[in-house]
Design a protein that fits this description.
With 382 residues, this protein is an alpha/beta fold. 36% of the residues lie in helices and 16% in strands. The chain has twelve helices and 14 strands. It has helices spanning 6-12, 54-67, 78-89, 104-114, 129-135, 158-167, 218-231, 237-248, 250-269, 288-294, 311-320, 369-380; strands at 36-38, 41-42, 71-75, 94-99, 119-124, 142-146, 171-175, 193-197, 211-215, 274-278, 302-307, 325-326, 336-338, 359-363. The strands form three sheets. A seven-stranded mixed beta sheet has the order 3-9-8-7-6-4-5, sandwiched between helices. A hairpin with a 2-residue loop joins strand 1 (36-38) and strand 2 (41-42). Bound molecules: pyridoxal-5'-phosphate.
Amino acid sequence: MTEQGFATRAVHAGMDPDPGTGAVVPSIVQATTFVQDGVNVLRGGYEYGRAGNPTRAAFERQIAALEGAEHAVAFSTGMAAEDALFRVVLADGGRVVLGGDVYGGTYRLLHDLYGPLGVTVELVDLTDPVAVAAAFGSAARIAWLETPTNPLLQIVDIAAVAASARAAGATVIVDGTFSSPALQRPLELGADVVLHSATKYLGGHSDALGGVVVTSDADLAERVRFVQFAAGAILAPFESWLFSRGLKTLPLRMARHSANALALAEALARNPRVRAVHYPGLPGHPGHDVAARQMTGGFGGMLSIAVAGGGEAARRVAERVRLFALAESLGGVESLLCLPNEMTHASVRGTPLAIAPDVLRLSVGIEDPQDLIADLEQALGD
Ligand SMILES: *Cc1c(COP(=O)(O)O)cnc(C)c1O
């Protein structure tokens, strides 16, 4: 399958027509258990829904093919996927190197739940080569990075960090949620594992929660699958089907998200009521060159701005938008906006991960760009 182009794989990988009926779209197998033709004589390898389900397996084949990987394991949420992965890689504790502004939930899971089990978390600015060299001077169990980061859209050089981290014995994990494999494929750049909150761009329609662990390491995949079987946080059949449906249009959606975000970033950069625009597609962004190298086909649909009038002015903009919806989450076809310090990142206020109160995060949808620009301009106006 990997010889075919990305868009072809998005439509066809794992999506074989139903052999019994010829249905072009594989049906949702909404069943908990599977009949056996003799004791332990299984028809398709399936016995019980927690252990395996054909709709889930189809989505796993599809996302693995898009990341250029051998294996994928799909979970009920992104956090459930992270937890299963950590149970494997951090089974006996160890040191975790975590990129500077990672998803707050990842920090919370590692610090609050794994900290008491002997895991130490070290926050490192992985955009800084000097800090990277110092961080991996001694043994580490995991290097966890996101790029672009949330919500400041900083860029980490995946290949460079992966090389340093591997030399220190670390498993290199990239949270690929913000870019999706349509724009960036970390395994090709030296990462061991890609993790997604499928809830965001993979599903793309803000209607399903899910997560996935993707890797070509067969032993790691088998152990993650065992944790899933033993602990139970599987992705349900209907959600699996929704994600398969979403993935088929992923390259189209990501191209449009990227084009809209760039148009909006350029317009906002000219607006005197905006103090700063953080978008890696702008030539002045400090990570622009690295992003242009490792993100193929676009810079993504996420951007953030600092509002010139400060925190109160930012809150006013958040409450005055009409087309953008004031909401957490990201990655759907509809545009969303949030005030991270009060919403997505409220739990990290007062920690090194805190976000300034004047920052607004935008998840740019696939609407007409002139409508999105007009909405923000009216919200920023007097
Ligand atoms: C949303 C998100 C997660 C967590 O995923 P859930 O599906 O909400 O559990 C992890 N990482 C990033 C970057 C996210 O945006």
